[in-house]
Structure formats: C-alpha cells, structure tokens
Amino acid sequence: MTTTRHAITASGLRKAYGAHVVLDGLDLAVAEGTVYALLGPNGAGKTTTVQILSTLSAADTGDIRVGGHDPVRDPRAVRAQIGVTGQFAAVDGKLTGEENLLLMADLHHLGKREGRRRTTELLERFGLTDAASKLPSAYSGGMRRRLDLAMTLVGEPRIIFLDEPTTGLDPRSRHAMWQIVRELVADGVTVFLSTQYLEEADQLADRIGVLNEGRLVAEGTADELKRLVPGGHVRLRFEDPAAYERATRALTGMTHDDEALTLQIPSDGSTRELKALLDWLEVESIEAERLTVHTPDLDDVFFALTTEPSGAPHSAEASAAQKATLR
Amino acid sequence: MSTFSYAVADSATMLRRNLKHAVRYPSMTIPVVAIPVVMLLLFVYVFGNALGAGVGPGAHGHYVDYVAPGIILMATTYGSISVAVSVCADMTEGIVNRFRTLSISRAAVLNGHVLGGVIQTLLSVVLVVGAALLTGFRPHATALDWLATAGLLTLVVVALTWLAAAMGLRAKTVEAASNAPFPLTFLPFLGSAIVPTDSMPTAVRWFAEYQPFTPITDTLRGLLMGTEIGNSGIIAVAWCLGLTVLGYFRARSAYDKA
Question: For residues A186 and A155, is the Cβ–Cβ distance under 8 A?
C-alpha cells in the first residue's frame, strides 16, 4: 500500500459572519499533484474556502495544513508555496502586462536577469507576447485571466488555488484555460479549483467535492458521483409505427413518447444489459432505427445534491424537470 | 538576505510601482500643485492689499511674505487627498489580495504608498515654493534655515501621508476617500496661514491657537522670514511625530483587518 502525501488537508472548517454560517464543518484532503474541484452553486462557500486555505482569511475553527504548514500560525511558510488566482483578475491595471509580471518577479526576489527570463517565457506561453506593452484595459477577458494566472506562476508555486478561473469567459478562452491547468498538473503542481461549472470539474478534476450551504454533500471522482444519482437509460427510436407498437406492448418499466416513436428504458449502460436488449429485439424481429445510451452527467448530480439558495432540496424528478426547462 | 533587507527590497519595489502610477496618471497630482498656486495668486493679487493692511507691520510690508509659508503648507494638505484616493483605489482592486498571498513583508504595500506619496507631495511643495518666489516672496533665510525648513516640511508631509493612508484604507469607496482628508485642507485657514490668529473671533481663535497647523505655520514663517519662533518649533515637531504614530498605527491595523 502506498501512502498518499497530501498537499492540502482541512478538518472541521467553520466560518460564520455574524449569524450567517458560511462553512459548517468542512473536511478536505487533496493529494499532491492532483486537481481537486470544489463544486457548488453561488453562495455555497467556495470563495470563503479558498480565502481561508490561501491565508487571506481565518477560519473560526478547524485544523488546516497547506503544504505542511498551518495558514494561521505560519502564513509566510504557506504563502511561499502557494499561488492564488481569484475570481476577479488581480492585475495592476496601471501597469502593462510585462510590467505586471516583472513586478511579481521583483516581489519573489528573482533578480533582474531571471525575472526578465521568466517574464518573457510566461508571456510567450500564455500568448501575450504581442500584448506585453499594452495596459490590461486593452485586454479581452480571456487575456486578463491569462495574465492573472501568469502572474501567479512567476513564483513557481507548488500549490495553486483557482477561484472560478473561467467564470465569464467564452468557450474558446475557457478551453485555453483548461489546457493550461492540464499542463500545470503534468508538471506535478497541485491545483485546488472552485467552480460552478460541472463540465469544468468533469474535465479537470481528479476528485470533486460538492459544496452546498457550507457542507460537502458528496465527494469522489466524477464517475463515482455520477453513480450516486439515478437517471441512466437507453433510448430506442423507431421508424416503423408498427414496430414501435409491438415494442411498447412487450417491454415493461419504460417510458414512451408516441409522437417521436421513442422508448426510454432504465439501464446502467453496461454491455451485458445492452446485449440482452439487442438480442431481444432480434428474437422478436423488431427493428429499431437508433439506440442511444444516456449516463447521468454531473448536472444530474448537481441538481440532486444542491439546493436553491432558499429552497428545499430537489428530488430526482424535480431536477429532471428543471433540466428540461433549462434546455 | 535577512527579513529586514527583504522588507526594504519589497518596499522599494512597491515604491517604484507607485511612482510609475503617479508619472503615468498625473491627474491626481496636478491639483496638489495647481490649487495652492491658484490660492497664492488669489491671496497675493486679489485680496493682498486688504489683507496686507490688516496683517500689519509683522509682515515686513509685503503680504506675500506673510501668506507664502501658509500656502506652502496648504500644498502639503492637498497631497493627502491624492494619497487617500490612491490607497483606496488600490485596495478596491484585486491586486492587493494578490500581494497578501505573497510571502512578502506585509508593511511593504503601505510603505510603498506612503513613500511615494511623500516624494510626490514634497515635489509639489518645491513647485509651490518656486511659484511663491515668482510672485515676489523674498524669504531671508540662511542655508541652515532652508535645511530646517526642508526637514520640517518633510515631517509634516510624512505625518499627513500616514494619516491620509489610514483614511484611504478605512474609506469604503474612492469618493469617500477623496472627502475624508478634506478637513485637513481647511486647517491652515483656521490657523495663522492667512491672517494672524489674534484677529479671529474668540472661539475660532481658541481652536486656531491649539491646532497643529498654527505652530507649524509659525515655525515655517520664523525659519523663512526670521520672525519669532519661540516654543512653536518644539510643539510643531511634537505634533508631526504624534500624528505620524497615530496615522501609522491606524493604517497598519486597517490594512491587517481588511
């Protein structure tokens, strides 16, 4: 058995602002060199968690280790290992992109030559070389975010916090950002990511914690989370109304749509179940035009496990209905 | 490098950042020079005859020689508005949160602002002194007097800049930050800057005699024009040091809390 080294651990994290409880006993463990995504709706406590772990704010109670140090007792030791990219671009709007990076190099005491070298390298890596001498006000949202992350990387941190790194970005910039995160992880960096985008967590994270009202309501890999909720099914579509009729009469436990001539049969999507279904169609000489397999996605998990800011938890059906209206 | 030399290096980095801002965006610095110069022109050329007659023989005949030290001090107070605004604007940007997550001296951000503010304000003061000389201000000060003048003005500017930094940190918006130091800019008027305090109504005179700008103005006037300083010098220095300590601790506690 190998022991996992943890870059971040937290247990019993609590934080309240007055009577408003933001974090209500949060436990986290992030293995070194992995991506952990904290997924949750607005107001779940994601940003507060990032702030506490990155020494910006202190928890009321709870035991935390980031890079082996306590952010409250030894903030400098923690700060020496982390990089933080917050929700709102933390760049100096009155300095050019290049000056922003050189400023970070100075604050990391890199020395003139090394600072220049790393600045040039990061500008190139993040596609900002042409914009190096422009002020961030002339940048697009995606460029600002890339400059922000580049500034975080000047000090070559081993642990990176990304608080909603792609909120407000267009799909192309979002994918570019994901690619950058993947490269970081390939270099062995630990990434703690907060996001409200399920796809982002699914794409990037090794483990996902679903945060709701200050508590983790589920945690695991994307696949483990998807298994938590029902919703997997096989959909059969027919061309021939007669074949549709016969299948409808023979099969039980499914839902059907007479207009579209489709059947929806609950299934876990395993090859064994699919083979049984296809064999049955063969034996009965029923020809189905098309078969599609639907596994539950993180959307199903999200809606099943999280609540509206002031509402009751959704049942599986309610979440399905909500999704139907959203699409 | 030791912790101390890192703190010095980080403060120098932040100072460079703030001076770059000031050079690139002079819109806040220009009024620090322009307003006192306009005041100087108003008081010398518009009100000068009437006020000069009221000030009397202590002014060596020329009102400009009486009012110029007061106007020079006014420039130091306008500098504080610019500092409060730039500190507050910086705090509302995400960049300061980034600085907080870096392993740098926590004082560096404020040191950079205050040092930058002191340099800017002192440069403005030099320009205002130049304008006063052009309008006929004829100080009879020795080299040593000028040196002492520079020292006193530096103490005043350091005190006002730390106070302004604290105001900027405590203000919730940039607008509030630009209003907070406003009372400071009135203090020279309610002292001996424009007219001697003994010409004022009793209540105002009582305030004028005990507020910091009166001993500061009297000391400055004494150094430049050779009038009687008495114990004003010591009181002025004590005020400056006291206000610096107050401003420093208020600023540090506000920065650590934010």
Answer: no
Q: What is the distance between the alpha carbons of residues B133 and B222, in angstroms, rounded to a whole number?
A: 17
| Domain residue ranges of chain A, discontinuous segments joined by + | 6-223, 232-294
The pLDDT value recorded for residue A70 is 94
Contact residues, chain A, for B104 at CB < 8 Å? 107
Angle at B161 between CA B116 and CA B157, to 5 degrees: 90
B interface with A, Cβ–Cβ below 8 Å: 1, 6, 9-10, 13, 16-17, 20-21, 24-25, 93-95, 97-104
* CATH code reported for the domain at A6-223: 3.40.50.300
Is residue A6 over pLDDT 50? yes
Is the predicted pLDDT of residue A13 greater than 50, yes or no?
A: yes
Is the Cα dihedral B229, B230, B232, B233 positive or negative?
A: positive
pLDDT of residue A40 exceeding 90, the answer is: no
Nearest alpha-carbon partner for A15 in A214, A193, A310: A214
* Percentage of residues of chain A with pLDDT beyond 70: 92
| pLDDT tens digits, one per residue of B102-139 | 988 888 999 999 999 999 999 999 999 999 999 989 99
Span B208-217, pLDDT tens digits? 888 999 999 9
- CA-to-CA distance for A48 and A172, rounded, in angstroms? 28
Can you tell me whether residue A233 is helix, strand or coil?
strand
pLDDT for A247: 87
Q: Are strands A20-31 and A6-17 parallel, antiparallel or unpaired?
A: antiparallel
pLDDT of res. A316: 39
Which of the four pLDDT bands, split at 50, 70 and 90, describes residue A324?
very low
- What architecture is the A232-294 domain classified under in CATH? 2-Layer Sandwich (3.30)
Task: Collapse the DSSP code of A62 into the 3-class scheme (helix H, G, I; strand E, B; otherwise coil) and give the result.
Answer: strand
| C-alpha distance from residue A287 to each of A259, A274, A293 (Å) | 18, 15, 17
Dig out the tokens for A220 from the structure.
Answer: 């695991």
Q: Which of B4, B5, B21, B95 is the best substitution to test chain A (most A C-beta atoms within 10 A)?
A: B95
CB count within 10 Å of CB B246 equals 14
What was the ipTM of the complex prediction? Answer: 0.85
Q: Do B93 and A92 touch (CB under 8 A)?
A: yes
| CB count in 10 Å sphere of residue A34 | 17
Find chain B residues with C-beta within 8 A of A163's C-beta.
Answer: none
Contact A194, A266 (CB under 8 A): no
